[in-house]
Amino acid sequence: MTKASITQAPGTINPDEAAHFGALAEDWWDPDGSSAMLHRLNPVRLGYIREAIDMHFGSDSRSLKPLAGKRALDVGCGAGLVCEPLARLGATVTGLDAAPENIAAAQAHAAPQGLDVGYRNIAIEDFAERDHDLVTSLEVIEHVDDPAQFIAGLADAMADDGLMILSTPNRTAMSKIMLVDLAEMTGRIPRGTHHHDQFLTPPELEKLLEEAGLHVVDTTGIVYSPASGFSLSGNLALNYLMTIIRP
After folding, report:
1. To which CATH superfamily is domain 3-245 assigned?
2. Which residue, of 43, 82, 152, 165, has the greatest Cβ tally within 10 A?
3. Beta strands 132-138 and 158-169, pairing class
4. What predicted TM-score, i.e. pTM, was given to this entire model?
């Protein structure tokens, strides 16, 4: 799929957002590059995902392959920061992203490691595969044009007894200061990465999920400290994760 076809296609993909993140693809895997904050955030997100996996599927927390025999889908996968760990947990993984540059970077990084990840440059509403045991989409919904359609696409891709994990910034004064104003001013994230008016509050996101026939079973905040970095918290003001099932 070419950049032109992404730009012209209606649906959830915002072409400006796709171009912004595609321009960052070259150093996506550099822990000190433009995606440095994602690298610092990722262990916290992955810890939350692993706990949700064990709780939902009844897997042993000591197991190295709790997703063996299961299918996982990561939507808005970037260059594979979540796809690769899911593959190491035993899943057959598919990663979707709007930017072809990200897909190329993800494929190049995964190939020499022999990881079972299939990357696709396609929008979720055009993705026909169903019955994924795990569906994840982290720091993505705030970048799409139609959040309701995006959630509906995620729901369609999830198995009836599947598990979904989402994360996104909250729309608060704190998130504007920390994730937009200060983060861009200090160069912690590239300018134009976040648009505060596109952030969703937990009640707004939960309403979209309920309208898609899904049920939120947990909402946990992510907080940031210059001294200790990111951690899970009951404070939802900055960023939050949700665990979702089909009731």
Report:
1. Vaccinia Virus protein VP39 (3.40.50.150)
2. 82
3. parallel
4. 0.93
